[in-house]
Amino acid sequence: MSEGVRWKRVLLKLSGEALMGDQDFGIDPKVVERVAAEISEAVNLGAQFGIVVGGGNIFRGVALAAKGANRVTGDHMGMLATIMNSLTLADALRQRGIQARVLSAVPVPSICESFTQRGAERYMEDGDVILFAGGTGNPFFTTDSGAALRAAEMQCDVFLKGTSVDGVYDADPKLKPDAKRFDTLTPGEVLEKNLKVMDATAIALARDNSIPVVVFSIKTSSALVNVLRGQGLFTVIED
């Protein structure tokens, strides 16, 4: 472990919606700045960061498919949305003096580098923050699954999932104020209870590679740094 943090190599998954703030669509620069500030603080504590940002604030392929459009086309559009979000967050990190690189599973060489495991490993060892864009590069896979895949490839110590609530509940706490928050869960319990924290593929990838999943609220100030120190409210999913 690095000084002051519980885990050294981290995969942070953020939903695209986390970047919207109070808007109904798009990117709120104030939210991006706040998230970048917290990541910068964590990096300065000694953590190595890989980041996956979803694209739901811009486009959802599943939503398009539900209206009768081609799912593959929709998922390709969603991959492009994740690249846009990654470029935005990378720029905010660079403005804070953090070396950030966007590596895409979908080749767009005039915009960013293409992902290779060896290249990403070299950058992370150098202390660069890596934003893994483009999902897995394949349709029908969520960005949660893409994040779990990258966490396994990069041999991350933990998968941090930043959400709008401070952990995993037995019901939606926004709809049921008396919903119970879990401090710990096993991957089997998540699947058995049908808790919608992430899809089954992502849970299985994390479980099979012995990577704990920590769910916390990215909307809470300083929550990221607190979680890395083992403080605050969160749910840990591991066997």
Explain this structure to me?
- This protein has eight helices and eleven strands.
- The two termini are 21 Å apart.
- The chain has a nine-stranded mixed beta sheet, sandwiched between helices.
- It has 239 residues and is α/β, with parallel strands linked by helices.
- The model has no long low-confidence stretch (mean pLDDT 93).
- It is 36% helix and 18% strand.
- It has helices at 29-44, 61-66, 71-94, 117-125, 143-153, 187-192, 200-208, 223-228; strands at residues 9-14, 48-53, 100-104, 113-114, 129-133, 158-163, 168-169, 181-182, 184-185, 213-217, 235-237.
- Catalyzes the reversible phosphorylation of UMP to UDP.
- Pfam families: AA_kinase.
- Belongs to the UMP kinase family.
- Residues 8-217 form the Aspartate/glutamate/uridylate kinase domain.
- Its EC number is 2.7.4.22.
Number of alpha- plus pi-helical segments: 8
Structural class: alpha/beta
For the secondary structure, the number of strands is: 11
Beta-strand fraction estimate = 15-25%
Spell out the helices and strands N to C.
EHEHHEEHEHEEEEHHEHE
Family: Belongs to the UMP kinase family.
Main location: cytoplasm
GO molecular function, one term: kinase activity
Pathway: Pyrimidine metabolism; CTP biosynthesis via de novo pathway; UDP from UMP (UMPK route): step 1/1
